[in-house]
Write a sequence for this structure.
């Protein structure tokens, strides 16, 4: 399970964008997002760098938590 803090994730659109990007990076990933805490949790077999890059390419700034 990978966990990232994404402070610039502020609304439902952000959640949808990040979820879509993560599912494109790994269609089998289980994505759990806690918007009030700005946390993104991803259960994936993909490399952490690839998951972090997918969040960045969606326009957000992830920090490993």
């Amino acid at each position: 399970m990978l966990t990232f803090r994404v402070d610039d994730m502020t609304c439902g659109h952000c959640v949808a964008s990040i979820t879509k990007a993560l599912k494109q990076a790994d269609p089998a990933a289980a994505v759990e997002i806690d918007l009030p805490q700005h946390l993104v949790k991803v259960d994936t077999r993909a490399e952490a760098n690839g998951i972090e890059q997918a969040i960045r390419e969606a326009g957000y700034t992830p920090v490993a938590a």
Remarks:
- Helices lie at 12-25, 48-57.
- The CA atoms of residues 32 and 42 lie 6 Å apart.
- The radius of gyration is 10 Å.
- The domain at 2-64 is CATH 3.30.70.100 (Alpha-Beta Plaits).
